[in-house]
Specification:
- The complex is a heterodimer of chains A (291) and B (90).
- With 291 residues, chain A is mainly alpha-helical.
- Helix content of chain A is 74%, strand content 2%.
- Chain A has 12 helices and 2 strands; from the N terminus they run αββααααααααααα.
- A two-stranded antiparallel sheet of chain A has the order 1-2.
- Chain B is mainly alpha-helical.
- Helices cover 69% and strands 4% of the residues of chain B.
- Classes of the chains: A mainly alpha (291), B mainly alpha (90).
- Chains A and B meet through helix 1, helix 2 and helix 12 of A and helix 1 and helix 2 of B.
């Protein structure tokens, strides 16, 4: 049966178009305009061409922040994805304990970003914080405000605490969608626990894991509030990630032109990575649909 | 609109994008695009190839600014060639 074509249905899309225009397209156009100009306030702008881009691309500041950002995202993914899968595998499959675990696991996700930063700021302090005090009493030198390594460990621990739950919940949903027949077949074949995971659970979770990787990568790549509240980007610039550096430039120094150029380059990197992930997701879905 | 700090070059750039999108939409109505698998091994439609060409062009321009000490129109020539390759082989 042929589907009727009704072009008037496009009118229904109009509210979204207007919303996206005001929330994304118009601000984006403004940022592009700013990136080619300089301003000293008073809504006066002076054309500088590609100067801000040239200056930023040749500055160590941008590359250092980008390097820290990529390192942070890679570490986060390497920890949170396997840990989230492990948590999901250990969770009860049914009964009231399953519901209880789900609620408990979801709790960190409900806490606002700045509160998470504040919790860990206090938690890590060696004078009043439980973590800082215990670690110091064990004879380990630990001070996230003065030592770059300690700051990194704390920021990573905070992110793992905050976001592993998301990976665990997605993995759990993936695991629950596997029909019981697969497990029964594995039992008949006397498959080991590892084989069940490797050949049944992991392939069946592939779709949700790609979404988990995408979400965690994008979120960690744009992280701002938690490390800013915890370390303020320090000590020195040790935990100054791209977004923290961008805010410092735009609001701290009020360099709107360079900040706009910075934003656009940051956006392009995120857009590129998102497109790659999106393409992988679509290709995977199509591959699964064909099977 | 003063707060948006418009300039002629940026206005022309966005107008160009808008015209390109309109042309693509009209082309799609007249000659609907079909998906094909090209050099990247992914299925692409005409709009996908346009997006890849635009995104790639942005990176080519940035690379040109950062690495090449030559006028920027050189990057535009490279972008044109890149776009041709994308539409032909991707």
């Amino acid at each position: 049966m042929d589907k009727p074509v009704n072009q008037r249905a496009w009118i229904l899309v109009l509210p979204v178009v207007v919303l996206v225009a005001f929330s994304s397209v118009i601000p984006m156009m403004t940022v592009v305009n700013y990136s080619f100009q300089d301003t000293f306030g008073g809504n006066e702008f002076f054309w500088v061409g590609l100067d801000w881009y040239r200056e930023l691309l040749q500055s160590e500041r941008l590359w250092d922040a980008l390097g820290r950002q990529i390192l942070f995202s890679v570490i986060i993914l390497l920890i949170e994805i396997p840990l989230g899968i492990l948590v999901a595998l250990c969770m009860p499959k049914k009964g009231w304990t399953a519901s209880l675990y789900l609620v408990l696991i979801a709790l960190p996700l409900l806490i606002p970003y700045n509160v998470v930063g504040t919790i860990w700021q206090i938690f890590g302090r060696s004078d009043i914080g439980l973590l800082g005090r215990v670690v110091s009493d064990m004879g380990i030198s630990y001070n996230y405000a003065q030592n770059a390594f300690d700051a990194w460990v704390t920021v990573i621990a905070m992110d793992v605490w905050h976001w592993t739950s998301l990976v665990a919940l997605l993995s759990y949903a993936g695991l629950r969608s596997i029909p019981n027949a697969y497990y029964q077949a594995a039992k008949i074949d006397q498959a080991s626990r590892w084989s069940v995971f490797r050949y049944i659970e992991l392939p069946k979770m592939r779709g949700v894991l790609i979404i988990a990787v995408l979400l965690r990568f994008m979120d960690s790549f744009m992280i701002y509030t938690e490390p800013f509240v915890l370390t303020g980007g320090g000590p020195g610039n040790a935990t100054t990630f791209l977004s923290i550096d961008l805010v410092k430039m735009a609001l701290g120094q009020f360099d709107l032109g360079p900040a706009a150029a910075f934003s656009l380059m940051y956006f392009l990197v995120i857009l590129f990575i998102s497109y790659v992930f999106y393409t992988v997701m679509i290709t995977t879905d199509k591959g699964e649909a064909k099977q | 609109m003063e707060w948006m700090a418009w300039t002629w070059p940026t206005a022309l750039f966005f107008a160009g994008i808008a015209v390109a999108l309109t042309v693509l939409a009209l082309l799609h109505m007249k000659y609907p695009s079909t998906a094909r698998t090209g050099a990247l091994g992914i299925e692409t439609m005409r709009g996908d190839r346009f997006f890849i060409a635009l995104l790639g062009s942005a990176f080519i321009n940035l690379a040109w600014i950062g690495l090449v000490d030559a006028p920027q129109y050189g990057a535009l020539i490279v972008c044109g060639l890149f776009a041709l390759c994308v539409f032909r082989w991707v």
